[in-house]
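B., you asked whether I could sanity-check this one before it goes into the benchmark set. Here's the sequence:
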Amino acid sequence: MINIHSALPTWDLTNKRVLVRADLNVPLANGAIAHDYRLQSILPTIDLIQKNGGKVIIITHMGRPKKPTAELSTKNLIPWFEKKGYTITWTDNLNDAYNKSLEDQKSILLCENLRFFPGEKGGDATFAQSLARLGDYYVNDAFAAMHRGDTSITLVPTYFAPDKRTIGLLVEKEITTLDKLLTSSKKSFVLILGGGKVVEKLRLIENMLDKVQTILLCPAIVFTFLKALGKPVGKSLVDQTALTICANLMEQAQQKKVSLEFPIDYQIATDNINGPLSLVEADAFPANGIGISIGPKTVELFKEHINNAHTIFFNAAMGFGDRKETVEGTTALLHAVAESNAFSVVGGGDSVAATETLNIHDRIDYLSTGGGATLTYLSSQTLPGLVALDIIKKST
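And here's what the prediction gave me:
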């Protein structure tokens, strides 16, 4: 837990260039933006820079390209900004970017996908210097990428004086909100976890055992716990390397009087994830079944815990968007969270996107832009992006 504030509001940026490391890694469908929450979240920082007289230069990554592709070019973001009333210039060349950074103070300069450049993943000092020369100030507002060691996150800020680098308003808001979870009263704090990233979520569980009262385990993470208990899971996703950790966590939870709640029925696919769907009782899980989501009995059971909660953290998207019947469990739980009186935080790209699809995003207290970064922070692990800004020291 850290108490931080962005220096951005105090800067006089008249005729200054501000290099903003954003995370605009939004889902695209045929070049169109499917969910724009991350784009919306960066606007307060952009608006404040422009209000204070500065020119905004945005650098961001999109996807995990092995080579430059039109589908993952930041050029796809231009229409969204223009519809919002912003003047925006785009470039795919860092030399051209430098020249354009000195022009038209009111126009946002958007650079090409950082991951199209080999230096972004290689800790390349030359690449870092090429990015750093684009700005007089550096602002990291890419919370969702702050757990990574990418050049633009960890190396570029070191080329700016301490009083000319800071976090953006989004990162400040993220940390302030997540700290509320880390300091929340244990009473009636419900953690709802599902999906993949099993090891990352196990670290989160371990760190939160002293802070939560109940943990609702959903597919797919639940199957590693069940396997550790010797329960049938069929062909469901299991992290074999984490069985001992799960066993230890269950023992710790019992000692700390934390209730680990398992589903009592499941939606499964037969033979493969695209196979026919059916509902099964937890104790009758077939050998050829693959757990996809929770069943209706579990929905009702979990809703009771949600309705009685004072605080909720949800990162448990289940199912597949192209098979609507597989997301019914996620939908039911998110509706329950939205309707509850609890202070609610939803994290993870799929979970946040689901709140937008269901049009309940404005009934959740906070939607975190981070996936892995949110899990890392709630696990009380170091975020390299904060270390690079000298906001926190590296863990030893």
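One thing to flag: The longest helix spans residues 37-51. Otherwise nothing jumped out at me.
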